Amino acid sequence: MVRVKNRYILVQIVCNNNSGEGGFSFTSSKLAELLRSKIEKYYGEFGLASTVRLHVMYFNEKTRLFVIQTRHGPHRFVTSMLPLLTVAGTEPVRYRTLYVGATLQQCQKFIVKYQQNFVNKNIGNYKGEVQKKLFVEKVTKINPS
């Protein structure tokens, strides 16, 4: 018997305008709907049917990272649609594919390294230990979707 193989796609949302973090409201269900509609538009019913098992497993609003789970094979439909997406809610954004992995554990390892680099790069913007501690807690907080 053959097992079902999944792929986990780690994506970052990059805002085009420098509005900061305010006003960014986007949920994992909206993201999945947006992806499915674009896949249906460009790949038709075949593409939509092949991505039935598309799920957003992880979504972090602070770092704007999310992990998409889909089957091996149709994951190419998802990765080819990400550059064509230009909005998140009402904001113009870009979607950057950071990592495509075979296991969720490998994706989580990459997320930990990526978030550690993000913290190290941006911790200097905060003055005082309390502000730094709050920043680290916001970034490393896990929001299951």
Topology of this protein?
Layout: E1 6-15, H1 28-50, E2 55-60, E3 65-71, H2 75-81, E4 87-88, E5 91-101, H3 104-122, H4 129-140
Antiparallel strand pairs: 1-3, 1-5, 2-3, 4-5
- What's the overall geometry? globular
What is the N-to-C succession of helices and strands?
Answer: EHEEHEEHH
- Work out the strand percent: 15-25%
Count of helical regions: 4
Question: What is the end-to-end distance?
Answer: 31 Å
Strand element count: 5
What structural category characterises the helix and strand content?
Answer: alpha+beta
Radius of gyration: 16 Å
Q: List low-confidence stretches.
A: none
Portion of residues within helices: 40-55%
Largest β-sheet summary: 5 strands, antiparallel
Strand order of the largest sheet: 2-3-1-5-4
Average pLDDT figure: 84
Structure description:
The chain is α+β, with helices and mostly antiparallel strands and 145 residues long. The protein has helices spanning 28-50, 75-81, 104-122, 129-140, and strands at residues 6-15, 55-60, 65-71, 87-88, 91-101. Helix content is 42%, strand content 25%. It has a five-stranded antiparallel sheet with strand order 2-3-1-5-4. Strand 4 and strand 5 (91-101) form a beta hairpin.
What are the key terms here?
145 residues, alpha+beta, 5-stranded antiparallel sheet, 4 helices
TL;DR of this structure?
The protein is built from four helices and five strands, in the order E-H-E-E-H-E-E-H-H.
